[in-house]
Amino acid sequence: MSRSQLVRLAGVIGAAGAVVQIAYGVIALVVGYPAIVETRGYEAIWGVAIIGMAAGAIAWAAADFARPRRAAVIGAGLVAVGGFVRLAVSVLLIADPNAAADGAIVASMLLMFGGLAVLGVATVRAHILGGVDRLLPFVVLLAGFVAASFYTPATAVHFPLLGLLWGPTWLYLATRAIGATPALVAATRSVGARPRSRPRRPPET
């Protein structure tokens, strides 16, 4: 799979997951707390959203917006690992809604936030994007932090914010990565093309 294909595939999965995440926020707003955490189907929806977050981070790193590439890979890897830890928690909670999973949830969030921070620093240092796009991983990080901060003081607000605040930032990140595909292909071709050798002139007599 070429890098441009990886960007498009991961970006599409990320965008689809973000749409599901926004829908989760709407559902959380309608059904309220604690129904949003007591119904297994809602946890499954959140699991799909988590897959989208991991894919979005991978798409961002593959789009070459963040440099050095090693930092981009580390950042996306941390987000992906955190996401899959949270996905495992979702599977556990679907099997047993009363399972003790708070520690694993906190660990997954720390991994994802740390990965977004690394991606953010690498994106700023790359000087490839301008404006808000240059700070986009930090915007996603900030939205997630705000949503997470409401868990204890206002749990009923926390779950809608996970979808309605955090979701749109992930959606923009994924679609921005998808939009980079044509430019990425052109850059790859230009780098891979070898300059034509000029014919040597005969020595002057």
Percent range of helical residues: over 70%
Topology as H/E string? Answer: HHHHHHHHH
Distance between the termini: 55 Å
Given the structure, what is the number of helices?
9
Average pLDDT value?
90
Q: Structural class, from secondary structure content?
A: mainly alpha
Sketch the major β-sheet.
none
Low-confidence stretches: 188-197
Task: Please count the beta strands (DSSP E, at least 2 residues each).
Answer: 0
The proportion of residues in beta strands is: under 5%
Rg over CA atoms, rounded to whole Å, is 21 Å
Number of domains: 1
The rough form would be described as globular
Summarize this entry quickly.
By secondary structure, this protein is mostly helical. The chain contains 9 helices and no strands.
Question: How is the topology of this model organized?
Answer:
Elements: H1 3-31, H2 35-38, H3 40-62, H4 69-95, H5 102-126, H6 136-149, H7 155-164, H8 166-179, H9 181-192
Helix pairs in contact: 1-3, 1-7, 1-8, 1-9, 3-4, 3-8, 4-5, 5-6, 6-7, 6-8
